[in-house]
Amino acid sequence: MDIIRLLPDSVANQIAAGEVIQRPASCLKELVENSLDAGATHIQVIVRDAGRTLLQVIDNGSGMSETDARMAFERHATSKIKEAADLFRLRTMGFRGEALASICAVAHVEVLTRRQEDEIGTLLEIAGSDVVRQELAACPVGTNIKVKNLFYNVPVRRKFLKTDQTELRNLIQDFYRIVLVWPQVQFTLVHNDEILFDLPAGTEKQRIGQLFSRSLKQDYTSHFVDIKVESELVSIHGFVGKPESAGKQPQQYLFVNGRYMRHPYFHKAILTAYAGTLGADMNPSYFVYFDVDPESIDVNIHPTKTEIKFQDEQMIFQILLAAVREALGKFNVSPSLDFDVEGRPDMPVSRLGEQKYEMPRISNESHYNPFHSATQVSKDWQKLYEGLPKSQEPIAEPMEREGREQTLFTVETPTGTPTAVGNRYIVVPDKEGILLIHRVRARACVLYDIYMRQIRAQQGVREQLLFPDIWDLNAEQVPTVLSLKDDLRYLGFELEQLSPLSFSVNAVPPQLNGQNALAVLQNILAEVTATGSSVREEWQKSLALSLAYSAAGGQQTMTEGQMRELMDQLFHLNSFTRTPDGKMVLLRISEDEIARKF
Ligand code: ADP
Ligand code: MG
To answer: How confident is the model at residue 61 (pLDDT cuts 50, 70, 90)?
Structure first.
């Protein structure tokens, strides 16, 4: 007996729906993108119960003919591409012809649509892929589509949904990603009869202001400078935040050809341009729009994927870096930068512990009390070692650096009184003169040692979060995060996968000093990805170092006791004169040298 048979369409569609429509937010995204593809200039979104009961999109776009309205719900039915080559010339948001077919497989769908040239429109009702009603109906030009009872026939999916609050947050996040790049279109979003957004058509800058100003009272966009660069390869324009307005919860958006994208590498380019201007745990906001030849990017990928592959990423990295630097420089917001060290095409991302970590110069949080958590750390640091094996070999072994000799130091901790020099250094007299200690690097060495021990012992100290953070990732990042999950756990991060693309962060390392855990994690991920190594040991070192730098940067001022404590920890390391990535931690100026100066 033959046993292979074709799945009925309804089943195939349900399977496909699992990929395309994961939650109300992805459904809404598909609907709105269709409206945009149809040339709508006004799009109304009506949502009930975070999209569980109703997602409705009303547009004034092209509308559909009677036949097209019916066809639209078939799989691989699309008006947007005709042949494979079209895939490389895409300017529309959708193209796979899968969304509507997927949606109608898992919901009750009602469409009311009319084209300009038709006198009467079409009403179509579909449930679980079956057309239950099709008739002529009077309606305005455009399309009005209702998606009701999402996942009514897929209990597993329904159970998978989070609280309304979380689903709504996802929905709004996707909404932001669309409306920010379509400012010329008027949008409204109504949830449970409450108007959440009413966004008139305008410029990009106005749209940014519409979305983000209200929380900041004054004009949000005044915190930004414009960037603009045209080249054969790419046109880039947008707005980057002035360093002084950087914060712990930055708005960071990248778009290409009218679509939101994640791009850790370009993100890195932007951050690199800020080097030296930001407080340790401060991150800049930015809205950057790329325009490239559609043939030079690859969007023919998974529909929910926001990662986009560019042909000339390294060149674009350089162009972007230069554009942001210029913009920041032009407005005199960035100090003179060292152009030689960074920004060479082949290297900027692959180095650990770039400058960005070491400048807690700007301490603008006068009310922030660093001692609160810092004392906690200092009380507990020895406990962190408890039960951990003493390392046989030095953990903070400095990497070799050409042409730089390794200064030898006596191992005892200096007993003189340590004094802070600004926020960056500690000065302390010792037997032979004075010793200058780079604070952040010193602390990074200490933490690195702790973290490596934790990883090696496969046990770590965690601080449970009362309100877990949600870490949204793109599909390409997920496998990396999954393979790092255990090591991250030893470092103190407890991650739990919530959905294919998101994790909740339930616990964090106790040394974070109130820094944004998601920002730290993003950073770690970027660093580890940049090392490009598949050797676990390398990853672990890179993880430990990245976290050590992040955590070390969090503290603004130190008491004498804390300085002593830090020195004590530092001088007990097997290797403490340089950071694991080879930067100088200590500088000794001998009495002779001092004498010579006089
Ligand atoms: P895709 O967008 O990938 O083509 P969809 O399943 O999302 O696939 O939509 C199928 C087709 O239905 C589209 O190609 C388009 O012709 C038509 N369509 C969908 N939504 C609208 C709309 N709001 N207005 C006009 N036409 C639409
Ligand atoms: Mg579509």
So the answer is: very high
